[in-house]
Write a structure and sequence with these properties.
Layout (H helix, E strand, L loop, with lengths): L4 H14 L4 H38 L3 H6 L1 H35 L24 H30 L5 H31 L4 H16 L1
């Protein structure tokens, strides 16, 4: 007699807990990683882009201002960048919506453990380390936020003059870092709720799995 999906998932979750998995630790780790990223990004991104711009200008002797503002070449490059950016931004926003839909069902299984009623297809499974889970969650959500920001950025830039790209970049990075910080705070809030034992959905799912095991 084949085992039900609920039974298989319950066994895998029990194995994960023996190996040290904890939904609370995953959420707290994700929150810390996102909050640290929200503090680091405003310092790292402008410096990195400035270094890349200096490298291109020194290596290829390209004046980026002429490409952005001058002649038909600059207009064509800007049009291509806008269209590609809109496409990528739409894809990233779709990924963010999908992730948040999973978060709405149950928060911790976004990257590691599925809902107890969903069958895992892998035969040998072990949970990733908490940091790997946190990074796996944070980079996808951050990319989704970047997509939202990119769409607004491109729309605004196609209407408003691009004469001051540094201020433009600075405001965008601030918005991105604030969004990452908000998600990090939400992760920490979910972890604190787990620590207090008030996450009923997770405990009820485990209880249903226990009942299924007892009936067999």
């Amino acid at each position: 007699m084949s085992e039900s999906p609920v039974t298989l998932d319950r066994q895998r979750m029990a194995e994960a807990r023996r190996m040290g998995y904890s939904p609370r630790s995953a959420e707290l780790t994700a929150g810390v990683v996102l909050l640290v990223a929200a503090w680091v990004v405003p310092y790292c991104v402008p410096n990195l882009l400035r270094a890349l711009q200096d490298l291109m200008a020194s290596s290829f002797q390209i004046d980026l201002s002429t490409v952005r503002d001058g002649g038909s070449l600059g207009t064509s490059v800007q049009a291509v960048v806008i269209e590609v950016g809109r496409l990528l931004g739409a894809c990233l926003v779709a990924a963010l919506v999908a992730d948040l839909g999973q978060v709405g069902m149950v928060w911790h299984p976004v990257t590691v453990i599925p809902h107890p009623r969903r069958l895992l297809t892998v035969s040998q499974w072990a949970p990733a380390a908490p940091l790997e889970r946190a990074v796996g969650l944070s980079w996808r959500v951050s990319l989704g936020l970047a997509g939202l920001l990119g769409l607004a950025w491109i729309h605004w830039g196609s209407v408003v003059s691009l004469d001051d790209p540094q201020a433009w970049l600075g405001q965008s990075v601030k918005l991105l870092s604030r969004g990452m910080g908000a998600i990090g705070g939400f992760c920490l809030f979910c972890g604190i709720l787990d620590a207090g034992g008030r996450r009923k959905r997770w405990t009820e799912s485990l209880r249903m799995s226990d009942d299924e095991l007892r009936r067999q």
